Input
Amino acid sequence: MTHFTFWGVRGSIPIAKASHLHFGGNTICSEFSTDKVQIFLDAGSGFINANVSRDKPVIILFSHFHHDHIQGLLFNKDLFSGTENVFLSTSLCSKTDLLEALDRYYGGRLFPETFDKITQAINFLEFSEIQSVIGDEIEVLSLALHHPGGCSGYRINSSDLSVTNLVDNEYFGGQKRALCDFVEDSDLVLWDAMYTEKELKEKIGWGHSTIEQGVRFSEVANIGGLALTHHCPTRTDEQLLAMERLNEQGNCFWAKECSIFNN
Ligand SMILES: [Zn+2]
Ligand SMILES: [Zn+2]
Output
């Protein structure tokens, strides 16, 4: 049976405040796990709480390289030993460019261990090579999103669960058809819910969508459910809970750290 876990649901920067504990303060990371393969979508600070498997292929798939999507990578204890089964990949660029991006973030004087030494134990994989590692039973698809510097959306299909990740993305009307096609029949869609419609007016071009756009998208797309995630770091639990009226009868919900979605 496939499990989908939210390990981090916060955008931009982790936040540790009592007012944010219910939904969680760690940045973006989620896990799609079957008995054959484990796939992580991004490795923000939430990645620190994930258990990396030793006995099946593990793919860490990056949407892009903004801090909130990579800052947890080298803080997961499981990555420092026995990592022959762990593969880092992205559809955004080649594996050489992926290594270079991570090396820039963790290299030189910015991290206590040299990235060269760490990467000796981690494998890098071209996106086109993923299927050969994970086999035919799981399918991984990609779609370019609208975000400064580029960002990859992903869809993962197994026999019993289909999840599509659309974080980070600045939604615009012209995307509607392509996104609806990409998510068609997904059990779960992850939506970039960084802003409210009112806040977006000041943040055009920053690369994020709104809560209200997510609710409307869930009403037109043929999907099982939509998780509003990548919560703004200043958004408190109280504020999120007060907005539940946005979709009282719909299929939207707030993504919550350490929660599990099953079909
Ligand atoms: Zn982000
Ligand atoms: Zn970003």
About this structure: The domain at 3-261 is CATH 3.60.15.10 (Metallo-beta-lactamase; Chain A).
